[in-house]
Design brief:
Blueprint lengths: L3 E2 L7 E4 L3 E7 L5 E7 L6 E6 L2 E3 L2 E7 L6 E7 L2 E2 L4 E2 L14 E2 L33 E3 L25 E4 L1 H5 L13 H4 L2 H10 L3 E4 L9 H5 L25 H14 L3 E6 L16 H9 L25 H18 L3 E4 L2 H4 L11 H8 L7 E4 L19 E3 L1 H12 L5 H8 L3 H4 L9 E4 L8 H4 L35 H19 L4 E5 L26 H7 L3 H14 L13 E2 L4 E2 L1 E5 L3 E2 L2 H4 L6 E6 L9 E6 L5 E4 L8 E7 L13 E2 L4 E4 L3 E8 L15
Parallel strand pairs: 13-14, 13-20, 14-15, 15-16, 16-17, 17-18, 18-19, 19-20
Antiparallel strand pairs: 1-7, 2-3, 3-7, 4-5, 4-8, 6-7, 8-12, 9-10, 11-12, 21-22, 23-24, 23-25, 25-26, 26-31, 27-30, 28-29, 28-31
Length: 714
């Protein structure tokens, strides 16, 4: 028999204790809350009852005779006064902001809007139709987490210095992997399949960074075009895994996959979207937060509370300067760490989270709360350090404890290898971890998360195959996505049979990848770049839940058969040399014990770079010698040449070294120099081909009679 008692105001959400369920919902301006229970199909409302108690701003009740699996939602009573920011409408069923699991999807219908569409007074006229048939339902869950019959899961806690991130999409990574069972492809379970784990391990990945898996919505305008929200940046609930990836394994498939990845030494990072929700601007639907307490959850202009303030480009911005909204964010993050053993988070449009209330503040409530949280301060925290509002671009502006996506690295590297003039100084800065950007906040080189490509933009193959975006499939007249991609098609737009063009594209891909892995900082690979994945020139494939976005394992490998071996060799090289995984920035300082600098910048003319050399706009070749203080004792020489012409690179006769042996070169299909490698000695010359990168390792010269290799050049 179901009986409702007062219950407790904490914890928020639906909490089953073995006898019944405590329901608790925060709403400051609401005047009453109805709990609605549904049958297993989610179509029939079987019971509606008023939560009997209110403590402060939390409405609550305890219901016996309810068990895990029960579907539920809320209806919140209160003023419908849009001009004051209030949009309460008990005719609209609401998803519990603290629901741990959802059942069903949003079915688009005019009834999901709190106002009458097309009415004379617009959103000021309340709509009284019931939205329950169109709204997902919360699911009561058993909070006692079990990891099955396996040993307890132990997160790897990989050192930042060793990190190599791999940005991936749950479905996109696995949907076309034909050695996976058909029912597993595209699901959470697939992430833990041996074929996927083996690929990641051989690639040298230390962490998979998953595009959003918080429950999200397929926007109405996309469905009307026959498209879906593929990326997932339209959050409906911050505690629930997105149900479309469940498969037969359900939520347990996600936990099992995480545990399997952990067994392989691979961490799982989630891309999370706490800056906005799926409810859009003031004319958007009422699905959850808007109906629970619009004036609290969303930032509103002080002079126009009917509207939503927007620094995200989506129509709304969550107000994390409010204590209860901040609490929801922190509770959600801890939930993913504690219930799923997530190892870290990449925060989408993170500048919006630190607006307190409207301007970015490095001492915002959000940043301070995370810093002192005993759980969250121990996981990896990565900011996308910008939003679209005034003053939102904050690369380098996050505090100690945070790493950041570094788009300066992306742009400098793309421009350099495209052959743009004047890029040498910026290339030198980003090769060494962007000290000028991150050292002022007392951070380390790994604070710079560096990438050639990411989900938003061209893939690596498309970056060297298209000058222009080709987003026609998105249905926005090719006006969406970035117009300035710093890309170069190498002489032909899109696919071509021209062998010279394809060879140049293969070289450019290798140059970009080698620069990424041989830079100091935290490298991030985009899913499929190791297999030349293409999106056919689409640089904004957010709505392409189809082969445009999915990873075609077979076609990609056929496009450049040796590229996968090249990437694997690159990651082995990075792991093998401590010089690339530094804990401190390079400064040019001299070590008294060795009288060597921590970095030498070398000009092809056989000298250290001079101030005048840095200012020469047409200079496109540079040498970087590092590792003079590396614990492993391995000194390295990196040579790059973005010019189309070959360059004779001279090493000064008085350079403090015995000889550098050629170990890696982007001219080679897999990059590895074999046989009798060339040696570059002080006073020697190396012919550095146009558009190529070469890596040398310092070795002591062999004794007479044991000479290894030969000097390259006269």
């Amino acid at each position: 028999m179901q009986r409702m008692d007062d219950g407790l105001p904490a914890p928020l959400g639906a909490t089953w204790d073995g006898r019944g369920v405590n329901f608790a919902l925060f709403s400051t301006h609401g005047t009453a809350v109805d709990l609605c229970l549904f049958d297993p199909t989610g179509r029939k409302e079987t019971r509606r009852m008023r939560l009997p108690a209110r403590t402060g701003e939390v409405w609550h009740g305890y219901l016996t005779g309810v068990y895990p699996g029960q579907l539920y939602g809320y209806r919140v009573h209160g003023p419908y006064e849009p001009d004051r920011g209030h949009r309460f409408n008990p005719n609209k069923l609401l998803v519990d902001p603290y629901a741990r699991q959802l059942f069903g999807r949003v079915r688009w219908h005019d009834a999901v809007f709190s106002y009458r569409l097309g009415a004379h007074r617009g959103d000021l006229t309340m709509d009284r139709r019931d939205s329950a048939p169109m709204i997902p339902k919360g699911v009561v869950v058993d909070a006692a987490v079990t990891w099955g019959d396996r040993r307890p899961d132990r997160p790897p806690r990989r050192d930042w210095r060793d990190a190599l991130f791999y940005e991936a999409h749950v479905k996109g990574l696995t949907e076309l992997r034909h050695d996976l069972p058909a029912g597993v492809r595209g699901t959470y379970t697939a992430l833990g399949h041996p074929a996927i784990v083996d690929h990641l391990v051989k690639l040298g990945v230390t962490a998979v960074e998953l595009l959003p898996i918080h429950a999200f919505v397929d926007d109405r305008f996309l469905q009307e075009r026959g498209l879906r929200n593929y990326w997932g940046y339209s959050t409906l609930n911050f505690f629930s895994p997105e149900p479309r990836y469940f498969g037969e394994g359900g939520v347990h498939g996600l936990r099992a996959a995480i545990a399997t990845l952990h067994d392989a030494g691979i961490e799982v990072i989630l891309d999370v979207v706490y800056n906005h929700t799926a409810e859009g601007n003031h004319l958007g639907p009422t699905l959850s937060f808007r109906g629970v307490d619009n004036a609290v959850y969303y930032k509103q202009p002080s002079d126009a509370p009917r509207l939503t303030w927007d620094s995200t480009g989506t129509g709304n911005t969550l107000d994390l300067s409010h204590p209860r909204v901040l609490q929801m964010c922190l509770d959600s993050l801890r939930h993913w760490v504690e219930a799923y053993h997530i190892d870290g988070f990449r925060f989408d449009l993170a500048s919006a989270l630190a607006r307190d209330p409207f301007a970015y503040n490095q001492r915002s409530g959000f940043l301070q709360a995370v810093a002192q949280d005993p759980v969250l301060s121990q996981v990896k925290l990565i900011a996308e350090p910008w939003d679209v509002g005034e003053g939102g671009y904050r690369v380098g502006g996050f505090p100690a404890g945070w790493s950041e996506w570094n788009d300066k690295w992306r742009d400098a590297t793309r421009s350099f290898w495209r052959g743009d003039p004047g890029r040498i100084p910026e290339l030198a800065r980003v090769l060494t971890g962007s000290r000028d950007t991150f050292e002022p906040s007392r951070r380390h080189p790994w604070a710079s998360v560096q990438f050639v490509t990411a989900h938003d933009g061209f893939t690596l193959h498309d970056l060297v195959s298209y000058n222009e975006r080709h987003n026609e499939a998105n249905g926005e007249n090719n006006q969406d996505g970035h117009a300035n991609n710093l890309s170069w098609n190498c002489g032909a737009e899109g696919p071509t049979d021209d062998a010279q063009v394809n060879a140049l594209r293969a070289r450019q891909k290798r140059n970009l990848l080698a620069t990424l892995l041989f830079s100091i900082g935290t490298p991030m690979l985009l899913m499929g770049d190791e297999l030349s994945r293409t999106q056919e020139g689409n640089n904004n494939a957010y709505a392409q839940d189809n082969p445009i976005s999915w990873m075609d394992w077979e076609a990609g490998e056929a496009r450049d058969p040796s590229l996968l071996a090249f990437v694997r060799a690159l990651t082995r090289m990075r792991r093998g040399y401590g010089a690339f995984r530094r804990a401190a920035f390079l400064t040019g300082a001299v070590f008294p014990e060795s009288e060597l600098k921590d970095v030498y910048w070398l000009a092809p003319e056989g000298r250290e770079m001079r101030q005048a050399d840095w200012a020469q706009e047409m200079r496109r070749a540079l040498g970087m010698q590092i590792g003079n203080d590396a614990r492993d004792g391995r000194r390295l020489l990196l040579l790059v040449n973005a010019a189309p012409e070959d360059i004779r690179f001279h090493l000064a006769a008085d350079f403090p070294a015995e000889r550098f042996v050629h170990v890696f070169d982007t001219r080679l299909p897999d990059g590895v120099v074999r046989g009798r490698p060339h040696a570059l000695r002080p006073g020697g010359v190396f012919l550095l081909e146009g558009r190529s990168l070469a890596l040398f390792q310092h070795e002591a010269a062999p004794q007479a009679g044991h000479r290894h290799g030969a000097r390259h050049g006269p």
